[in-house]
Amino acid sequence: MRKLIFLLSLLVFGSCSKDTNCSNSEHAELKNLTGLDGCGWVLELDNGSKLEPQNLSDFEIALVDGKDVHVRYTEIEGGSICMVGQMVTIDCLSED
């Protein structure tokens, strides 16, 4: 299973253009949850659900708590130590 996730991640990373347009994206807000055990930066969608991005460092964006962004993502299987939201791989991330 880990090999499958790794291969899918390589496919996503290799095909990702990291465009700044982010068509078909969702509005989200950056949240710094580093005070919670095992947590770091998460994205909170307008509906209140949270995303735990596994590749946030791949994008050149200033990490500021409360910053508005647009994100397109792919849900991935697995668990995290943080456990506040769905684990995802970001396909596109842009600032508002």
Q: How would you describe this structure to a colleague?
A:
The chain has one helix at 2-15, and strands spanning 26-32, 41-45, 50-53, 68-75, 86-95. It has 1 helix and 5 strands, in the order H-E-E-E-E-E. It has a 5-stranded mixed beta barrel with strand order 1-2-3-5-4.
Number of helices: 1
Report on the biggest sheet.
5 strands, mixed, barrel
The percentage of residues in β strands lies in 35-45%
CATH architecture: Beta Barrel
SSE ordering: HEEEEE
> In which order are the strands of the major sheet placed?
1-2-3-5-4
Report the uncertain regions. 1-8, 10-19
How many distinct domains? 1
Terminal CA distance: 36 Å
Highest-level CATH class: Mainly Beta
Overall geometric form: globular
CATH superfamily: NigD-like N-terminal OB domain
User: Taking Cα atoms only, what radius of gyration do you get, to the nearest Å?
Assistant: 13 Å
Q: Portion of residues in helices?
A: 10-25%
Count of strand segments: 5
Give the CATH topology.
Answer: OB fold (Dihydrolipoamide Acetyltransferase, E2P)
Give the structural class: alpha+beta
The average pLDDT score comes to 84
List the helices and strands and how they pair.
Layout: H1 2-15, E1 26-32, E2 41-45, E3 50-53, E4 68-75, E5 86-95
Parallel strand pairs: 3-5
Antiparallel strand pairs: 1-2, 1-4, 2-3, 4-5
Task: Give a short overview.
The N terminus is likely disordered. A 5-stranded mixed beta barrel has the order 1-2-3-5-4.
Main attributes of the structure:
alpha+beta; disordered N terminus; 96 residues; five-stranded mixed β-barrel; single chain
